[in-house]
Amino acid sequence: MRSLGVSLLFIAGASAIVDKFNNNLVFRSPYFDEPQFGHDTVALSRRTLEFAKRDQVPADGFKDGKYPGFYVSNLSNAPFIWSSGVNFTHSVASGDPYDTSVILWTRAVPLPSSTGQLPDQSVPICVVYKVFTKSDLSGRPVDSGEAFTSYDVDWTVKVEAARLKPDTKYYFQFADCANPSGVSPVGSTRTVASSNTPADKVNGGKPMTLAVFSCSQYQAGYFNAYGYAAQNVTADIFIHLGDYIYESVGNGAKIGRAVEGRELATIHDYRQRLGQYRSDLDLQYAHQTAPWVVDDHEIADNAWKAGTADSNDTAQGCTFSPSGACFTDRKLAGTRAYHEWMPIRQLDARDQLRIWRNFQVGKLFDLSMLDTRQYERDITDIYYNRLIASLKDAPQRSLMGHNQEKWLLDTLSKSKDRKAVWRIIGQQIVFTQVVDLSGGINLDAWDGYRANRNRILDHLYNNQINNNIILAGDSHANWVSDLAHANDTINYDSATGRGAIGVEFAGTGVTSSSGTFVKGNLTDSIAVSTKYVNNNIDLQWNEGFFRGFFTLTLDSSVLNATYYSMRNVTYRNLDGFASAHFTVKAGENRLSRPVAGGKVLSGALKYPSN
Ligand SMILES: *[C@@H]1O[C@H](CO)[C@@H](O)[C@H](O)[C@H]1NC(C)=O
Ligand SMILES: *[C@@H]1O[C@H](CO)[C@@H](O)[C@H](O)[C@H]1NC(C)=O
Ligand SMILES: *[C@@H]1O[C@H](CO)[C@@H](O)[C@H](O)[C@H]1NC(C)=O
Ligand SMILES: *[C@@H]1O[C@H](CO)[C@@H](O)[C@H](O)[C@H]1NC(C)=O
Ligand SMILES: *[C@@H]1O[C@H](CO)[C@@H](O)[C@H](O)[C@H]1NC(C)=O
Ligand SMILES: *[C@@H]1O[C@H](CO)[C@@H](O)[C@H](O)[C@H]1NC(C)=O
Ligand SMILES: *[C@@H]1O[C@H](CO)[C@@H](O)[C@H](O)[C@H]1NC(C)=O
Ligand SMILES: *[C@@H]1O[C@H](CO)[C@@H](O)[C@H](O)[C@H]1NC(C)=O
């Protein structure tokens, strides 16, 4: 215990410090209200004060082998924070836009002192954030604040900019509190319309565009799709449906994309990988230009609630794990790093893994983001457990877990009740049945969890919930389908779309390749797609040759989807083209006919017009 006098001296400062640690939402990650899993910011503030005391001891007499770099600068002006400069190493990002607030993100790393001494890692960094309505940052900031970061959270910063106006574009910047001229790049972001805004007034009456991505493997190619979406297409919100990072190492050396580190297991591994991915300039730029809504905690390949294909925990423990780390440890490390690096909100103090969440964008649409990977998913295909095939129809088997499933069904009903025009469900894996060319199905997709899929479809049909749009990633190919019960040729008509209850738009990867579609041979790849559309009733278009992304542009009467193909991801470029364009009219619950106007620039339509 310190003497009373010293304590009193620090009381005012201590609470101010705790506030600034708390302003950085990253310290709550991944479990706020659970200090044993998150960060105890009161203890961090105490540590900061303890360390700051060293500044009041003459340098020459100070012996502390643990903190050799401490006396690198004069901290008297700002005794608790680093004052020798900050490097905003990974630009800025924003995400999870509400009507009056949005999450802002940056990373602020201490720079060495002018004498070249390495920074004292134990001193926190203070950043100030300011939000403006003008791109030149003129005028008074509409919101601002200060937050601390430290090595405990990999120097990441995540704040909630509040007091914003609905449906408005904003510009923001971070600066070093100690040296206000040390600034981050300027980011742009936006809020969405308030939930009661009439559908035709959302986005100032103009259609809104969502750009949708998945499967971005660093070593497989350059993130041209992100650059193209940010520079050649205007999108209001970027959505990522999972496989934002890959946990494996792979071989990207020959295109200059070698991955650092190893198969991810520890907090250091996950941070290093996220940091390397985010060094990609196209990804950085895409984060800098628009708010993102992201999905999946990115733990490991084919993850389910208690394991993964790569972790291999068994009844014998973690002895088979290539990393030597048990799955539970990986899951905690992966989740924590994800919340540090991604501009995502934390929603529920008591539900530690919850990232499923809903965005009400006026009465135009609800965007419901699911977690079909980590939350409470029953065991999936981990390649050697083929008995899963016999479980695919088990009624109790769940992909989402009870809480999330109930929440989704309620959210869909509420969305109908509040008279939102569209219901968009963002999730990881392909929903519609896809029987492959040898008659098999992908047990890691919804095809492995058929009862869960039927419960969702039944809920939509039985309650006459219309205008449902499901988004999916994961498969490294494009699949566009009417939404109906698998193999239902009585109620659903594949030629007209009669009897469907919506549409699924599943997208290819940003870079991850698909061998199935005959890499490098366009003709053969289209032949494969032709077989797929002929073999699968609901599937109207399939394409697997190009990497890319798609956009949804919607107003109160029409939702269009445009698929973009990137010509070459083996080097950095912005060479892309729109390969197919689909229309869904409000109230029709199916793709408009002729599907894609009967004409696409790649892949195969079930009913092409000649
Ligand atoms: C540190 O800065 C304070 C305030 O500017 C000044 O009074 C003090 O002399 C400085 N100390 C050293 C060692 O430069
Ligand atoms: C700041 O960080 C970037 C990205 O890691 C790095 O390339 C650059 O060299 C750093 N700048 C300084 C001054 O250290
Ligand atoms: C996991 O364990 C199974 C069963 O022992 C084995 O066949 C498989 O190769 C292991 N996988 C890994 C990635 O260690
Ligand atoms: C639909 O039919 C195909 C082909 O007969 C079969 O493989 C698949 O299991 C069926 N799907 C369902 C949900 O019964
Ligand atoms: C694609 O493969 C077919 C044979 O399956 C071959 O005839 C054709 O030349 C190949 N095209 C290219 C561009 O390699
Ligand atoms: C949808 O696409 C059609 C034709 O391609 C176009 O006429 C219409 O304006 C688009 N609507 C929206 C909301 O993008
Ligand atoms: C992609 O670009 C690389 C590097 O310029 C080139 O070698 C390769 O042939 C290109 N691939 C295609 C399909 O054009
Ligand atoms: C995308 O935009 C960039 C400039 O921002 C331009 O250089 C490039 O040619 C555009 N790509 C296409 C395919 O139009």
UniProtKB/TrEMBL annotation:
It holds the Pfam family PhoD_N. Keywords: Signal. Residues 90-191 form the Phospholipase D N-terminal domain. Residues 1-16 form the signal peptide. Residues 210-562 form the PhoD-like phosphatase metallophosphatase domain. It comes from the Eukaryota. This is PhoD-like protein. It comes from Macrolepiota fuliginosa MF-IS2.
